[in-house]
């Protein structure tokens, strides 16, 4: 594009770049991803501090040791905090506005970002109890896309004291 | 610190949405030449160049430092790239300062930049990962839930964020280099702007900017020579520190990160600061979203935990009568060339200490704090500058 008035000099051009890559899941993420294909949340536990990580990244950042085992967690939990995303951007795959929440699964020691639906945005709150909505079994795969979203499960809100250490 | 180090020259570009008249090379050279001129030097006087920017995906150019060497007079000289996400401008200045305090170099040019118009940082920060839901929505989408947690924890009233948004934009009107100049800014204007990352309004968020910052850091001898040549006094480094922590670990305090508190404790110890609110005359702190002012007031020990919003609400951080003005330049809320934003914080305290901040100068600054943070609040960089030799 010629940006300077009175000039035909090319100063900028758009060059879209595509990058395909293979993701090697490794020892910790493999049971987690396989679990998602089966409709289960599978985390790992630190052998020192006993904290349960999901998704497991293979090591405990606090103790510097490998996390172990395959901890099958409930597919329900608590919204610790959230925001309502109302900004469009390139590559966005979900219609705005949407609720982006930190969900702490029962039995886990770290929350992860999840989509919340089946509740108006202005009624979402910290402490809301939610459950996973899985895609039909034949559509599940080793990806978090196996979880469509989380929705309120009707339980009373969690007490602030029960999750304040996870903020 | 073995050798003393001072800021002896500063240069910055006017921040703007799109600098279509220059390439990245032209942008960094503009800032660098201004810093050299301010120090009364030329490229020939420089021993080494330390450069920083935020992730390469923000412009789509990998390792841009390699092609920028000629534009920065660095051919045949040591050149180093620093990378600590949004805090990088601060970390870059600290790496450059260490080359002087270690006695390796006499004069180091340090530069940081971002040219957001060359690509799309919002996209680059929102790329889906194989093990996570595709929910990321830029930096605001990451920080807004943490802000909500702060509001719940502290009991701060909803309007405090909007006060910061107004205050920093009023400060920016005094800074000709600031990107946003919004003379009609008011609480109502902020409140009427779209809520883009609930609880954050559009005007509680930083802009996307093109911009560069540069400083010349010098030894005691270099500082004396520059002062003799230019008549401008140096700003002495009294303390500098960096800290980091993992972005995700069980039990992490995301609102008030340990790494930030540890970094502040270290830099205060070096500078002999015991009561930050009283000991500093002003501060430039990385506040890209309004609520990070009260959050960092607490993290940096300007008040007790849970009380930061009261300082903001009382106007303590305003140039208009506050006792501890924060972000007199307008801060990141008014200009955000990401990679340069941290260096602008460090550079602005140098201007304040040298008495050269122009319309946004605070009277009689003797000591000031510059802070930058980055990533998911996992990188921190800070320095303390003063008028007196340490």
How would you sum up this structure, described in words?
The complex is a heterodimer of chains A (167) and B (390). By secondary structure, chain A is mostly beta strands. Chain A has one domain. Helices cover 10% and strands 29% of the residues of chain A. The radius of gyration of chain A is 20 Å and the shape is globular. The model of chain A has no long low-confidence stretch (mean pLDDT 91). Chain B contains 14 helices and eleven strands. The radius of gyration of chain B is 19 Å and the shape is globular. With 390 residues, chain B is of the alpha/beta class. In chain B, the strands form two sheets. In chain B, strands 3-2-4-7-1-8-11-10-9 form a nine-stranded mixed β-sheet. In chain B, strands 5-6 form a two-stranded antiparallel ribbon. The N and C termini of chain B lie close together (10 Å). The longest helix of chain B is centred in the middle third of the chain and has 17 residues. Chains A and B meet through helix 1, strand 2, strand 4, strand 5 and strand 6 of A and helix 5 and strand 5 of B.
In short:
Chain A has 167 residues and is mainly β. Chain A is 10% helix and 29% strand. The mean pLDDT of chain A is 91.
List the helices and strands and how they pair.
The complex is a heterodimer of chains A (167) and B (390).
Chain A: H1 26-37, E1 41-45, E2 52-53, E3 68-73, E4 76-85, E5 98-105, E6 112-116, E7 129-134, E8 147-152, H2 160-163
Antiparallel strand pairs in A: 1-2, 1-3, 4-5, 4-7, 5-6, 7-8
Chain B: E1 6-12, H1 24-39, E2 48-53, H2 65-68, E3 79-82, H3 88-101, E4 107-115, H4 121-124, H5 138-154, H6 160-172, H7 187-192, E5 195-198, E6 200-201, E7 210-218, H8 220-230, E8 235-244, H9 258-271, H10 276-279, E9 282-284, H11 292-299, H12 308-314, H13 331-334, H14 338-354, E10 367-374, E11 379-386
Parallel strand pairs in B: 2-3, 2-4, 9-10
Antiparallel strand pairs in B: 1-7, 1-8, 4-7, 5-6, 8-11, 10-11
Helix pairs in contact in B: 3-14, 11-12
């Amino acid at each position: 594009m010629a940006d300077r008035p009175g000039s035909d000099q090319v100063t900028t051009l758009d060059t879209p770049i595509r990058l395909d890559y293979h993701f090697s899941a490794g020892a910790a993420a493999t049971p987690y991803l396989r679990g998602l294909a089966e409709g289960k949340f599978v985390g790992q536990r630190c052998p020192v501090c006993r904290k349960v990580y999901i998704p497991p990244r293979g090591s405990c950042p606090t103790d510097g040791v490998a996390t172990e085992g395959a901890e099958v967690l409930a597919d329900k939990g608590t919204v610790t905090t959230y925001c309502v995303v109302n900004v469009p951007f390139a590559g966005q795959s979900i219609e705005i506005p949407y609720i982006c929440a930190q969900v702490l699964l029962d039995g886990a020691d770290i929350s992860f970002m999840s989509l919340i639906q089946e509740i108006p945005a202005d009624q979402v709150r910290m402490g809301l109890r939610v459950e996973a909505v899985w895609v039909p079994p034949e559509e599940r795969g080793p990806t978090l896309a196996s979880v469509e979203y989380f929705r309120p499960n009707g339980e009373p809100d969690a007490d602030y004291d029960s999750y304040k250490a996870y903020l | 610190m073995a050798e003393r180090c001072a800021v002896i020259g500063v240069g910055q570009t006017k921040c703007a949405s799109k600098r279509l008249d220059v390439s990245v090379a032209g942008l960094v050279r503009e800032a660098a030449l201004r810093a050299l001129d301010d120090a009364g030097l030329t490229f020939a006087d420089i021993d080494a160049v330390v450069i920083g920017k935020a992730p390469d995906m923000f412009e789509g150019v990998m390792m841009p430092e390699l092609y920028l060497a000629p534009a920065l007079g660095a051919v045949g000289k040591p050149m180093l790239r620093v990378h600590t996400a949004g805090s990088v401008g601060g970390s870059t200045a600290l790496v450059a300062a260490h080359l002087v305090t270690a006695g390796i170099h006499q004069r180091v040019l340090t530069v940081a930049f971002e040219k957001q118009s060359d690509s799309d940082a919002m996209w680059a920060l929102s790329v889906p990962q194989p093990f996570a839901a595709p929910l990321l929505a830029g930096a605001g989408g990451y920080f807004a839930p943490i802000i909500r947690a702060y509001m719940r924890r502290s009991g701060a009233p909803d309007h405090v964020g909007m006060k910061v948004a107004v205050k920093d934009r009023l400060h920016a009107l005094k800074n000709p280099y600031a990107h946003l100049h919004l003379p009609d800014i008011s609480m109502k204007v902020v409140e009427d702007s779209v809520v883009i990352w609930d609880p954050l309004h559009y005007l509680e968020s930083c802009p996307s900017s093109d911009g560069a910052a540069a400083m010349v850091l010098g030894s005691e001898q270099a500082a004396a020579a520059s002062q003799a040549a230019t008549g401008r006094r140096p700003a002495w480094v009294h303390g500098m520190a960096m800290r980091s922590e993992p972005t995700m670990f069980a039990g992490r305090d995301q609102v008030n990160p340990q790494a930030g508190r540890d970094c502040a404790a270290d830099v205060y110890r070096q500078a002999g600061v015991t009561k930050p609110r009283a000991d500093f005359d002003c501060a430039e702190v990385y506040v890209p979203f309004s609520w990070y002012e009260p959050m960092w007031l607490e993290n940096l020990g300007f008040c007790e935990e849970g009380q930061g919003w009261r300082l903001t609400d009382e106007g303590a951080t305003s140039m208009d009568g506050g006792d501890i003005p924060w972000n007199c330049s307008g801060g990141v809320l008014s200009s955000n060339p990401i990679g340069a934003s941290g260096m602008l914080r460090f550079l602005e305290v140098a201007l304040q200490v040298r008495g050269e901040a122009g319309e946004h100068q605070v009277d009689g600054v003797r000591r000031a704090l510059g802070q930058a943070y980055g990533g998911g609040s996992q990188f921190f960089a800070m320095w303390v500058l003063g008028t007196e030799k340490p």
